[in-house]
Amino acid sequence: MKKRYILFLLVICFFVAIFVFITNKPRTYSLSYDMNEFKVLESFNTEDGYYSFKLTKDEYVFYYAINQKYTSKRKLVEKVNTKNVDNYLCLNINVFNKTQDYICSDTKEYKDAYQVGLLEIEDQEKIKTYEDVDIYKKVTIYEWNGYGFTDITTGKKINVLKNEKYDNSLSYQFENIVIFADYDHKNEFKKFYILDMGNGKVTTIENEESISYNSYFEGYIGNNVYLFDKNNNVQYAINLKKKNIFKTSDKEGAVYYDGKKSSQPLKNFKYKNVVFKNDNIINYLLKDDKLYLTYKNSDIYIKIFDKVNHILYSNDSKVYFLVGDTIYMYEIGKGYQKIASSLEWIFHYESQIFIRI
User: For 146, which of 85, 88, 112, 207 is 20 to 30 Å away at the CA?
Assistant: First the structure.
């Protein structure tokens, strides 16, 4: 009798486990419901693993995309909050026990809460000065010094070149790694330097064949950073984890990436610089010197800053950008922070400044 009872419990536990597995298995879905006079379209995309929420009311449309672990629960928006500022309706939502940032719209354009005056950027005091750089937030910043890099937060120099080279255009930041060419040769080189901004150490990767300086970095796929050599008509992938380099092109074409890996003819890469399109859940772009935020699969562009010179680096949560002589950081959920400033950056900034994220 006891054995039958135990067997019965095991069978029940088995079916309960199967039920829990099935109900919690991620699945693509779309669900529409009403909340606070807004129509909410809630969706989950299993391919990219993110939630999206589209809220509409009359001519107003708001959109959020959120990277969140799948849940079997539905109707996830807990609350819709609105405020009116001049001609703008500002909205945010409470979802996943967190309040999202305000998005403001006058039905024609979108701005964040700082742009319409709903929130104000707080003044920050300078914490230190290194040479001509004023530092406002403790962030590791590496600046090209002609022979390598200087950590301007500590003053430590990491020099690897024998000859001074001001132009560092053949360089690329991937997460906290900076890869740059060995500039100690005239027309071609075989060696790349790899700076780990996490520990300040430099390693090298060497190629068997020479690479011309008439090359450019196209972007990344996974752990591979891609470079195209225009003079030699060759594409390379540099694996920054395994520290190796290999050809990815042939006579037919080379690798291209715009969310999906494909191939394009070599001439497409040779006569213009083709950059990969890595579509994050949250993306930042410059348009007419203005900085915009846009969510994946959305045609809504939210203006977050005016008169921006350059985007230094961005990922799904934050963006570092240069305004005049000052570096700012914008972080989702936390707003703006001034990082550092230097008059030199008004004139020289491209491939000169690299920030540990």
Answer: 207
